[in-house]
Predict the structure.
Amino acid sequence: MSSIQDLQAQLRDLGQSLEAAVGNTYANAGARIVEEIKSSMRSSRMQQRTGQLYRSVGFVLQGDALVVSMRDYGYYQNFGVSGISNDPATEVTFGLAPKSGSKFSFTEGSLERARETAEANGGHLPGFIVERFYMGIRAKGFLHPDEWETILAEEFATGQIVAIVENTFSNTYII
């Protein structure tokens, strides 16, 4: 039989154990999510000229949040960009601007600004870049946040947290 004081001590210990376990659970989920993204990049046969985007995929824990990160242009690669004369982009469903429900797109104005910037730096825009402004960038679709939610749910349902709670109260009886 446990006393109220014993139960209070168990709850204090539980709180400390859970705090550590939540961090570990997020870290495990983050590692799995990063691997899911990289696996999806590989299976979509994305061209990897330098591999910088692939290597940049990671995660950080910010308080109680798991933040997935990568080079900013990864979002443009994922959703695609509508060109001046072609529309291969898909609707943005999460993440960076413009906003959910709209598309990234190039315009005549953005092409002119790019030309001006290149000339100001003593160069010109290569033909393949100009072609991208007109034809756009095909969406690669390698980010799957619905799968990330599943990974988080699995980690929290089967990880250390459940074991800690079960072990803490396995021999506790209050009468």
